[in-house]
Amino acid sequence: MAKIKHNNFLDTVNEVFTDAKKQGVLHLYAEGDSFTGRKIRVKQKDLFHFGTTGYLGLEQDKRLKEAAMDAIYKYGTQFPLSKSYISNPLYRKLEEKVTQLYNAPVIITKNSTLGHLGVIPSVVNDGDAIILDHQVHWSVQSASNVLKTRSVPIEMIRHSHLGMLEDKIKKLSSKYKKIWYMADGVYSMYGDVAPINELMQLCNKYPQLHLYLDDVHGMSWAGRNGTGYVLSKLDELPDNVLLFGTLSKTFGASGAVAVCTDKKRYHKIKTFGGPLTFSAQLEPASVAAAIASVDIHLSPEIYMLQNELLERITLFNTLLANTDLPLVEQNNSPVFYIGTGMPITGYNFVNRLMKEGFFVNLGIFPAVPVKNTGVRITISRHNQAEEIKSLVDAMVYHYPKALEETYTTPDKVRIAFKLPILNEVPKKQIVEEFCIGYENTIQHIDKDEWNNLMGKQGAFDWDGLLFLENVFTKNERDENNWDFHYIIIKDEMNTPILATFFTYALWKEDMLAPISVSIKLEKIRKNDPYYLTSKVLGMGSPFTEGEHLYLDKSHPHWKLAMKQMLDKIEDLEQQCNSNWLVLRDFEHDDELSQLFHQQGFIKTVMPDSCQILDLYWKTMDEYPESLSTRSRKHFKKDIKPYEDHFKVVYNDGPNRKQIDQFYELYNNVNKHNLALNMFPLPKKLFTMMSQHPNWEFLTLYLKEAFNEGNSHVPVGVMFCYKNMGETYTPAFIGMNYNYTDEHQIYRQLLYQTIKRATKLGFKKIDFGMTASFEKKKVGATIIPKAAYIQAKDNFSIELMGVMENN
Q1: pTM for the whole structure
Q2: Which fold has domain 83-285?
Q3: Which among 51, 217, 415, 607 could disulfide-bond with 769, CB atoms 3.0 to 4.6 Å apart, if both were Cys?
Q4: Interval 281-302: pLDDT, tens
């Protein structure tokens, strides 16, 4: 299998966050000598605070502050000893009161992240299985991943998709003792809630089903005695439900709480909960503040506080209902999400609101899909009616201006969030003088113009694309039928600024995933061939490789031309109903990278491109001198001695039998090459290659001395495209793996390709992607490439993350 480097997820997140930081909406510092909760000072300006998770405002309650200060004077700033040995004197009181609050056994943890890391490995046994909601909090997913080392299977379902959940339960029920479904009670971005009643019905139907519910965002503002949203639906906690609450956020103190009614399970967690045993215990001030907060929760006062918050939430909901602002989820939680679609629109909108005097949070990838960026607004008891009304007025005024300045529209945002559209009047072009040419066949584009812009590389000159259009149409299998879309943007002088083409085709979503993921998926696809496949609107095509975008960056309006192109493909995406949009084969370019991020794309690493950029030697005798000293040794040892093993045939008109042989060799390689996992190409392609003047088959036959009786059977083949006398393109390869090591077939194919291109007088060779180490040894320049992707949701990305090494 070819070895390629795969994208580091954290690198992607780093780029997204770095861009948001540059835009002034992330990694900010609060200022000032005091803090009341109603306002927050940022960049020397006091802003009304609509970003807190302290929904009831208890973190500013005088009783909690006095309790914390008293504990510090009595017990110090911390109690530096593991809780497994001895707890600070206030712990017993806190545990007793929280137990009274929930009417169930509890375990106090330092925070919810450490709590999940301690509890999940303790309660999930080796004979159990886990199903994650794909929007469950990162801390739950991270703790679950620890169990991969114990071979506990981890599955994932689309957010709150109960049909998919039941299918997973049926699949797992015959193999595993318990099936744990892990979800949030209230989700932190959109403020939507778990379908608790329906989940309990599934528990009744499937006794193996257990629920692990993280309700930290439902705490205090909902439920009897503020025990949270989940218990507001359940009343009592059953043995098959493990609940996580928080002592921070709305509770006003610090720490978290696991609630478990199963006595054996409780004892196991309490006795040894991994990091719960070894991590530091809560500071005395935090424990004392939590005790003061529990007292409020156990009193009738909590219902007064809940009602005061509900009045503010109701007011905000009522005001928003009288606007066209795209509220993604309407309910009675204190979390609201106004969609902006593209990150650049979100940056603009947040900065406008901050200048107007309001602090809000931006929801960005990976918490939400990149194109589902939006403004996350939280309502608390600190907020007064007048500033809530003023915030809505400010949003109504600034939202359309943010859209206009970032060249988007309300309906485009609504489509991204699957909200009802307003049927607005189509907007004008970004630059009136632009001429935006669009065609769905290369035959409608001037041949000379296309070749001047795009024609000197790969297999996508005018003739190459006409060939591909003819191949990938009217085929039996869906993956072999592609739609082609061509875009050329010119200025008022009819000078091209941009040219590109896209194909709409079925892809395997793991095309660039790690091999370990593709191996698992291919096992599933034996029974379900189209599992985790999607329609993709992708730059270039699954067949071609190279610079699929011509862009004149010296033109003063090149960025606007790019935006116009993105608008056009967004329209095409809606027409096609594609699940993914992919811009690919880009070299390092900070300006383009930032532009794509701001327009809702995330960057992912592609396999390196391998090219011999200049076939300057006149004869093959001179070729070794072009190599490095190390590569010359490799050539003399592993390539040149084997040349005499082969008869080399340049076949541009093979018969049917030979095509069958070539196709078998190609399939051998395709099945092995899971590092770039693609659908196999149709046999029709190879038949049509044999009839096309620009294609030839560079074929290796072992001589009789090395393959007695089978010297007429090919053992290796390069499928090569001859591009306008400029570029020789070995697009695909086929090999018989029974002979590869003994006769160095792959290396010989690379060398014979160079030899053929030199003889024909080509200027360069596009060796394509993968196997860059081998191609570098024969003189190829290795060029790192990246793609920018936009998905309708993060489910597939996160699912493949769960599958890796599972």
Answers
A1: 0.85
A2: Aspartate Aminotransferase; domain 2 (3.40.640)
A3: 607
A4: 899 999 999 999 999 999 999 9
